[in-house]
Write a structure and sequence with these properties.
Helix content: 25-40%
Radius of gyration: 22 Å
CATH class of the largest domain: Alpha Beta
CATH superfamily of the largest domain: SPOUT methyltransferase, trefoil knot domain
CATH architecture of the largest domain: 3-Layer(aba) Sandwich
Number of domains: 2
Distance between the termini: 38 Å
Bound molecules: S-adenosylmethionine
Structural class: alpha/beta
Number of strands: 9
Order of helices and strands: EHHEEEHEHEHEHHEEHH
Shape: elongated
Amino acid sequence: MKKRIFILTIFPEYFKPLIECGIAGSALRGERSQDDLKFEVHLINIRDYSKTNYKSVDDTPYGGGPGMVMRADILKDALVEGVVNQFGYQSLADLQVIYTSPRGVVWNNEVAKSFAQEKLSHPTRDIVFIAGRYEGIDERFLENYVDEFYSIGDFVLTGGELAIMLMIDSSIRFVPGILGNKLSSQMDSFEDGLLEHPQYTRPAEFEGKSVPEVLMNGHHKKIEEWQKAEKLRLTNKHRPDLLKK
Ligand SMILES: C[S@@+](CC[C@H](N)C(=O)[O-])C[C@H]1O[C@@H](n2cnc3c(N)ncnc32)[C@H](O)[C@@H]1O
């Protein structure tokens, strides 16, 4: 099964490292998958759908105020001509259109996991991310074309590109077959409500510090007990709020 991810942006070059590097990159290039689910990323430059002389995509806000607003008509053309028509979809119902915005559902590990299950692994509907810039997007486009909104936190970015990359990177690892070791995502921080325990590798001695003895003796039960105690210790130290939950 082919899973297409479209990204509508005025800065397609932002996404180059995400697609070229690391685990997320190989997943997005369709090189990692399970059950025949292969990702395909298409970067759509919104400017290509502007009919203005200077290929602008924004205009001044009605009612005044600072900054510029992205035009609904140009975004609609990018979505309908650049995605629906160009890639042969029957209608917009074949796509899930996502906009990142401070007004959205706040992203965290649980939301990322549901996103992977319900959106990235959805058998029929492909995904379109819209990257906002300037002061954001004309409300009428959001009302008519966006299915879901996500925020990556209570702060304001200069554009949606980083938010989209963060969402993709942190959710694609929950798609079966993407991480080399199946257990890996289940062992990471937040999975059981706690931070991960400390990790060690060679050399066994570093600047006078040894690896904890318990990890060297191969006693699995004792290692598990140590890891659990360390998870609690680190969570209590760095994120006591998680323990209250
Ligand atoms: C400068 S921001 C616009 C902020 C908007 N005027 C406001 O006050 O909510 C430009 C774009 O960055 C993205 N963005 C900014 N903050 C974000 C956040 N916390 N989460 C997700 N996307 C964000 C949105 O796509 C937004 O359209």
